[in-house]
Amino acid sequence: MDCFNTSRKEDSILIELLSKAEYEKYIDSSLELKASWLLSSNRSVKEGSHHLIPNAEGKLEQVLVITGSEHSVWSIASLPWVLPPGDYHLSDSIAADVRQRLSIGWGLGAYRFNQYQKKDDKCARLFCANDIDIEKLNAIVESTALVRDLVNTPANDMMPIHLAAAAQSLATKFQADFTEVTGEDLIKQNYPLIHAVGRASNFEPRLIKFSWGEEKHPLLCIVGKGVCFDSGGLNIKPANGMRWMKKDMGGAAHILGLANYIMQTKLPVRLQVFIPAVENAISGDAYRPGDVITSRLGKTVEIDNTDAEGRLVLADALAEVGEMKPDLVIDFATLTGAARVAVGTEIGAFFSKQDKTAHGLYAAAKAVEDDIWRLPLHRAYKHQLKSTVADMVNCASSGFGGAITAALFLDSFVPKDCDWVHFDIMAYNNRGRPGRPKGGEAMGLRSVCHYLEQRYLK
Predict the structure, then answer these.
(1) How many CB atoms lie within 10 A of CB 397?
(2) Is 199 labeled as catalytic in the residue annotation?
(3) Which helix H or strand E contains 182, and what residues bound it?
(4) Assuming Cys at both sites, which of 40, 102, 304, 351 could form a disulfide with 422, CB separation 3.0 to 4.6 Å?
(5) Are 372 and 396 in contact (CB under 8 A)?
(6) What's 398's DSSP letter?
(7) CA distance 114 to 134
(8) Which residue of the set 99, 199, 311, 446 is catalytic?
(9) For residue 159, is it within any domain?
(10) Which uninterrupted H or E stretch holds 24?
(11) Closest Cα partner for 334 from 345, 326, 323, 319?
């Protein structure tokens, strides 16, 4: 990554982290010139603030960052584009594991999406010593950047064919076996729900798949919702609801980011990736409210609302996953507004059928400072999915518990004994924060990466 320097520490500028109490002691113990500068600069000493300290010649000599009592992954995440371009290093007095964490925040903060802008700006670079695991550091930073790039790309350059190309490029990079089923072949190979949702678009719907790893390893299946643009279909969205629907393939973006991390770090799993990729468009061939469609699993689904399309395309993919008897299934989807009502836009909601798996994810999330929250798979709400003419409807008539009823719909296509985790995420930052710029975002990705390492690197 351009934001890291692994070759030389010489001439780099020290970044020192201090708590508020330590800052006061630092001034008292500093040389007169430095103390005078800090006192006269009248800079804030609130947590997250930073101070640039020059030497006697006026050149930048040191950066002071005010932090809490413990150093967060976000402590220096705002600095890459705030500091003058150049090389910096963290104090050797900071433990290696803490510097590893801080370096991750630095890398996440160095991200910018400027593919459609002419910018030659250069961010500051952080020196990484030999005791930093640079491969793992790059893996998480690059995987997060991949998610953000895919989500931020406008729909005119991120239709199903483009998403397939991104997946194939990733598969080729790691010598994974790539396949896809497109257009009318979806009907022939029994993916009727994917076909129904995507058939109205000029861009053929498809199921993107690739596999990687050795047969002897546990089978991990990951599934991502790839609705590249969601008009809502015939139940068309209002303008404000449709504006950011380029991000409705955020689940697929997360799966590609997760796959990148797994393959780059050579996690001992047999990985199978599934991405149903469609555009939910409107034409004379669009599927309609009231239609009844037979799914891959054989269950018939009555369409109550064509804007509840993500669960339909996931259902066919999850049905195939269930046929494979995996050790673990994880899906990511920008599935419901109800999940955002429940936990807000900055927390990744998830569901899990196994308490042990959920607790493991919580522990991982805490360790890497990644905000996720478990919602209940409350089966008593399943009555809301009953249909009078089919086995089930695709969404409940009431919006209450909408994230739960959506998860219950998906659960109907997952084997009862399957260890399955479903993420319902925003995939987007509505505001910028240190290390988390406004725009596409990987939510829950670092939690899952850490959890999988804990699970499979025994």
Answers:
(1) 10
(2) no
(3) strand 177-182
(4) 351
(5) no
(6) S
(7) 25
(8) 311
(9) yes
(10) helix 20-29
(11) 345
Rounded Cα distance between 407 and 385, Å, is: 11
Is the separation of the CB atoms in 445 and 108 below 8 Å?
no
User: How many Å apart are CA 420 and CA 369, to the nearest integer?
Assistant: 23
List all residues 6 or more positions away from 137 whose beta carbon is below 8 Å from its beta carbon.
Answer: 4, 100, 103, 104, 107, 128
The enclosing domain of 106 has a CATH number of 3.40.220.10
pLDDT band at 42 (very low <50, low <70, confident <90, very high): low
277 is a domain residue? yes
Catalytic residue among 9, 43, 237, 433: 237
Token digits of residue 183: 């257009």
User: Cα(198)–Cα(280) distance, rounded to whole angstroms?
Assistant: 6
Q: Which residue has the tokens 């997952």?
A: 414
Residues 340-394 have pLDDT tens digits of 999 999 999 999 999 999 999 999 999 999 999 999 999 999 999 999 999 999 9
DSSP run (H or E) holding 61: strand 60-66
Q: Is 123 part of a structural domain of the chain?
A: no
3-state helix, strand, coil in the chain (%, to 5): 35, 20, 40
In the listed set 110, 127, 159, which residue is the last one of a domain according to the structure?
Answer: 110
Residue 1 has pLDDT above 70, yes or no: no
**Amino acid at the residue 256:** L
| 266 half-sphere exposure, CB direction, 13 A CA radius | 1
Active site residue 118: no
Q: Are 436 and 347 in contact, with CB atoms under 8 Å apart?
A: no
The one-letter amino acid code at 394 reads N
Q: How many domains does the chain have?
A: 2
Range of the domain at 95: 4-110
Q: What is the CATH number of the domain that holds 159?
A: 3.40.630.10
